[in-house]
Amino acid sequence: MAPGAERRPRPSRRRLVAASLVWTAGCAATALLVPGVADASTHLAAAASLKEVIDNLRNVIVGLLVGLATLFATIGGVRYMLAGGDPGEVEAAKKTLRYAAIGYSVAVLAPLLVKMLQSIVGTPS
């Protein structure tokens, strides 16, 4: 260790267990979302009309966004719990959680964006 460098405290066993439980729950939630995305993507090319293609594409994008946002929320939560009071690490964890919130908000707004696209293209809703 370099002279004058501070040593970061190690997280307690309780924090490590909590972080591993959060990580496991987040990974399980993300894994549960994957079959829905795969199912929607298999119907993407088999659609008979443009409206069905757009709806299927929306479902795939929303599923991917929610899965990715869940993964980011899990990573941010684990980083926050393991930060040990380090201000730089806490800020990085907050930034990761902020990105997860942005991902969720984009996923919520996706149906509105599809409606706007349908009005531009001219397909009936």
Automatic annotation (TrEMBL):
Chloroplast listed as a keyword: no
Keywords annotated in UniProt: Membrane, Transmembrane, Transmembrane helix
InterPro entries: T4SS_pilin (IPR043993), TAT_signal (IPR006311)
Keyword Transmembrane helix (UniProt): yes
Annotated TM spans: 57-78, 99-121
Domain of life: Bacteria
A matching Pfam family: T4SS_pilin
Protein name: TrbC/VIRB2 family protein
